[in-house]
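User: My advisor asked me to double-check a structure prediction for Phosphatidylserine decarboxylase proenzyme before group meeting. I don't want to rely on an old file, so could you generate it fresh from this sequence?
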Amino acid sequence: MSDRLFVLAQNLLPKRALTQLAGAFAGARAGAVTTATIRRFVRRYGVDMAEAAEPDPAAYESFNAFFTRALRPGARPLADADWLSPVDGAISQFGPIDGDRIFQAKGHHYTAEALLGGDAALAAAFRGGHFATLYLSPRDYHRIHMPAEGRLRLMRHVPGALYSVNPATARGVPGLFARNERVVCLFDGAHGPFAMVLVGATIVGSMATVWHGVVNPPRPGQVREWRYGEGAAPAVTLRRGEEMGRFLLGSTVVLLWPPGPLRFDPSWAPGAPIRMGQAMAQRG
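Assistant: Sure, here is a fresh prediction for Phosphatidylserine decarboxylase proenzyme from the sequence you gave:
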């Protein structure tokens, strides 16, 4: 199917209803039906269950429990690098931010301000900085980890569309990652601020963080924001490589860095596979 036809189908599908239905099914505890579904999924996508802390598909009470499965200890060693890959998946794009513009695919850009929920002041911190966009397919491990140690300052849930985020949609839908529902997480690190943006997609039933739990649903249709280390919300500091969140079904993570010297790992290229804990970038 061509990219144009795929995007047309995306526009015609009832994406929100499909997402709600998929979320309900994935959370159901249906015994033998759940186990059979998981086994079919493992075969269809070639999931390596030997890496899982619990390798037996029958041990998972729901599809969500399987999909957000933990890995066995030592499955993802941490590289000696300033910045680590936070996920298993594939590199979509990476590089410098051109003023406020972030490259999505040939012929398509979007702005940091739009990605961050229309926050011009926050976007200014990343103007002329760097970005990385990482795609998680259905077969991938779906927990998200810290690329470096960080102290959480802000979390923002931005409502939006629920387009698929696979490469065909990235090529065909302008401003895709700034249009889809997303959760913006802003951290202070040893080298300054950095942002991790969890982007939702069709049939991604919800996104969750370790400090908040499930962020969506609910989907109230307006931006929601939480600040940390101020007032009633306690400070949250997460270590390098520590889990920070998870997707229920596949999606995308966008990382933003402020201006300054940043060298991506020489092995990086668009489309290349990555694993959590591998070297992503060095400062200087």
